[in-house]
Amino acid sequence: MDHKYDILQLLEQVKNGEITPEDALLDLKIAPFEDLGYAKVDYHRSVRQGSSEVIFGQGKTAQQIQGIVKSMHAKGSQNILITRISNDKIDYLEKEIDLDYRRNAHLAIAYPKETTSLGNIVVATGGTSDMNVAEEAAVTAEVLGNHVTRLYDVGVAGIHRLLSNLEPLMSARVVIAVAGMEGALASVVGGLVDCPVIGVPTSVGYGASFEGVSALLSMLNSCASGVSVVNIDNGFGAGYLASRINQMEGLK
Fold first, then answer.
1. CB environment 63-100: b (16+ within 10 A), e (fewer)
2. Burial class (CB in 10 A: 0-12, 13-18, 19+), 244
3. Are 34 and 40 spatial neighbours (Cβ–Cβ below 8 Å)?
4. Three-state DSSP class for 41?
5. Which residues are CB-neighbours of 170 under 8 A, at least 6 positions away?
6. How many whole angstroms separate alpha carbon 228 and alpha carbon 238?
7. Are 56 and 140 in contact (CB under 8 A)?
8. Closest by Cα among 228, 200, 223 to 212
9. Which of 60, 61, 88, 157 has the most CB atoms within 10 Å of its CB?
């Protein structure tokens, strides 16, 4: 169900005299969210932002997640993203709802539906250890309707690995650079491409990396233009932002 389409239909009914403005206003007042007691589910997120509300799984019980998902699905939502979800919650939810679990990304898609793939987002990692965060970014972008190219383990310690992949990098509309340790990948990529680069610092590294703070500060201090940075290990945030940029580009 497209909530934007629903609102347009409602306005058409008012225009045609099939419903009074007062009744239409009441429908709109009721529609924005539902209070489940433990959560207020935002049904108008897709109207404002183009995609359904995303459920942050960490800290919620499996039963709470189930309740939120079912209320969203009852309103027509599909491809509902559940981030940072643990295996024990998945064991419960898989028996209750249609679920596509991406273990490497710690992410699940409730009531999955095939989407179109627009543009090209490249997700690159400094090392194999950064892949969980990168997969969270990549799967998020794919579910939101973007074509994603993965370039994993192309860090600056062996920069020839990165330079051998210049073609996909140069053809990208957005690049997500995921790296721990010193986080240099974002700056290097930023100096090579002509599109926005989103740096994702990860908590991968030895003691002086301070669980990702070192990589975060390195990316924030990047001398390459066009590099923005999300929080440590925030693959979801990078994938969502990349989708926004990519799909804005696609409208030109």
1. ebbbbbbbbbbeeebbbbbbbbbeeebbeebeeebebe
2. middle
3. yes
4. strand
5. 192, 193, 194
6. 10
7. no
8. 200
9. 60
Which of the listed CATH numbers 1.10.150.130, 3.30.365.10, 3.40.50.1970, 3.90.1530.10 matches domain 118-250? 3.40.50.1970
End-to-end CA distance of the chain: give it in Å, rounded. 26
Residue at 222: amino acid letter: S
In the chain, domain spans: 23-110, 118-250
Structure tokens at 29: 């007042």
Name the token pair of 32: 């924005």
> Which residue in this structure is represented by tokens 């009852």?
74
Question: Which residues sit opposite 99 in a β-bridge?
Answer: 110
How far apart CA 249 and CA 48 sit, in angstroms, is 19
Token digits of residue 147: 């074509």
pLDDT tens, 69-104? 888 887 777 888 999 998 889 989 988 888 889 988
